[in-house]
Design goal:
504 residues; alpha/beta; eight-stranded parallel β-barrel; 20% strand; binds 3-methyl-2-oxobutanoic acid; binds zinc ion
């Protein structure tokens, strides 16, 4: 059996299908670069025919990210395959991913096609994609609810037509581990030619079993596993790659399969995805949740202090989680700051370091102890360099439990300053209303959230806002020790993204 399990990341495609998530090309590129550092074997960069934005993002990633295979999704129709190939053709390792549903329920109610129609479309599209020169992956959507004999027939036919990878999705997260493992065994035993291709699985988490099902498939001899960072995706999401990777690493004694992954990049990748998608991670989430390596009970703390392995089955360092050390104080120089950024794994340009240092100095003036997490929040806030069409210059608020909140905001727009005042239902609402006046239009807020980056009264607050324009969602982030300032920054960030995208 091939010892290596290939890791197929679909954060940028299935992950982006999470409600409220919308990434622009720059954000997708940033995630793809980080996925390359993590060491994934395949990046599914998008669904090129779905939109101009998806097409552009897949093309940009295909041009720039050279080590992993870059994959584009298409339905089993020629126009989709042509569009995917157009986006992928400059990739070092292009992969076309053709999918079509095979379960009777999907055939009858969604596709309105017969089994013969689906078989024919599968074979024709795989043969066509193969003729273009790409590696071809075929997925039988809703495979886990498909009649077995029919599934074997479709897989055998697409292998004959040239498919290189056969993917078995548990599209609606319906399978349970023993059953899913048996499905994989059945495919291996009954599909002619299956040992000449890579067998892959793609599990959803509707019943909370996506990781368990993926691992059951590993035990039954698959070669590729699919998932997303932080488990984001449609409905309850996809299998969380960090969980599968760490399970395979930590229980190598049991699974006896390895991955080509640099696990010390997991934490950074998870943070970046959470930041750019605006999908916060639940504190008790396995591997990457804030509490995943925290020991609360005295008896546990005592155990860990005497011998870490009493309560720690993997180390925080193994996923790249640094000790949350005090970094520097307000007297620290630029050189020391730059060194700390390097230790934290950030390779920034001189301009970026200068900007981060300015913000660090501001923070050090307000906050007694500046921690690594604070530095990471400051740097990640500016991770994506979209033009700052509007920038917060200054604001003032008046608010209380017996007075109407009012805010005055001054924004910098090119060389000009625009100042407006407005009232609101509270200080954040007043600031947002004043910002709307400054930019001369309404920008409806879809969602607002706040979290503390570290503990303590002087903690940095990180605000996430979602605004909507023409049905498209834009996520903005802002950090500050002052939550009104963090809110203003987040709102302006979302507005800048919206204006930048709509001007394209
Ligand atoms: O869940 C699913 O079936 C999919 C396919 C497109 C692979 O995402
Ligand atoms: Zn899926």
């Amino acid at each position: 059996m091939d010892d290596i399990i290939r890791v197929f990341d679909t954060t940028l495609r299935d992950g982006e299908q999470s409600p409220g998530v919308s990434l622009n090309t720059e954000e997708k590129l940033e995630i793809a670069r980080q996925l390359e550092k993590l060491g994934v074997d395949v990046i599914e960069a998008g669904f090129p025919i779905a939109s101009k934005g998806d097409f552009e993002a897949v093309s940009a990633i295909a041009r720039e990210v050279r080590r992993p295979a870059i994959c584009g999704l298409c339905r089993a129709v020629k126009a989709d395959i042509d569009r995917a190939w157009e986006a992928l053709k400059e990739a070092a390792h292009p992969r076309i991913h053709v999918f079509i549903a095979t379960s009777d329920i999907h055939l009858k109610y969604k596709l309105k096609m017969t089994r013969e129609d689906v078989l024919k479309a599968s074979v024709e599209s795989v043969a066509y994609a193969k003729s273009l020169g790409a590696e071809v992956q075929f997925s039988a959507e809703d495979a886990s609810r498909t009649d077995l004999e029919y599934l074997y027939q479709v897989f055998a036919a697409v292998i004959e037509a040239g498919a290189d990878v056969i993917n078995v999705p548990d599209t609606v997260g319906y399978a349970v581990p023993d059953e899913f493992g048996a499905l994989i065994r059945g495919i291996k035993e009954n599909v002619p030619g299956i040992d000449k291709v890579q067998l892959s699985v793609h599990c959803h988490n509707d019943l909370g079993m996506a990781t368990a099902n993926s691992l059951a498939a590993v035990q039954n001899g698959i070669q590729q596993v699919e998932g997303t960072i932080n488990g984001i995706g449609e409905r309850a999401g996809n299998a969380a790659l960090e969980e599968i990777i760490m399970a395979l690493n930590t229980r190598r004694d049991y699974f006896k399969r390895a991955v080509n992954i640099d696990t010390t990049q997991i934490y950074r990748t998870s943070m970046l995805v959470a930041h750019l998608t605006g999908m916060d991670i639940q504190p008790n989430k396995a591997i990457v949740g804030a509490n995943a390596f925290a020991h609360e009970a005295g008896i546990h703390q005592h155990g860990v202090l005497s011998e870490r392995s009493t309560y720690e089955i993997m180390t925080p360092e193994s996923i790249g989680l640094k000790q949350n050390k005090m970094v520097l104080g307000k007297l620290s120089g630029r050189h020391a700051f730059e060194e700390r950024l390097k230790e934290l794994g950030y390779n920034l340009s001189q301009d970026e370091i200068n900007a981060a240092f300015e913000r660090f100095k501001d923070l050090a003036d307000k906050k007694k102890v500046v921690l690594d997490k604070d530095i990471e929040a400051l740097v990640t806030e500016k991770a994506i360099k979209i033009p700052e069409i509007y920038a917060l210059d200054q604001f003032q608020i008046s608010s209380g439990n017996k007075v109407t909140a009012t805010a005055t905001v001054r924004l910098k727009h090119g060389d000009q300053f625009i100042e407006e005042a407005a009232c609101g239902d509270g200080p954040v609402d007043a600031v947002f209303n004043a910002i709307e006046r400054c930019i001369g239009r309404e920008v409806p807020l879809d969602d607002y959230g706040i979290r503390a980056v570290t503990e303590g009264k002087d903690a940095l607050g990180e605000v996430t806002v979602r605004v909507r324009n023409d049905g498209q969602v834009f996520v903005g982030k802002g950090v500050s020790t002052d939550i009104i300032e963090a809110s203003a920054r987040a709102y302006i960030d979302a507005i800048n993204k919206m204006l930048y995208e709509t001007a394209k």
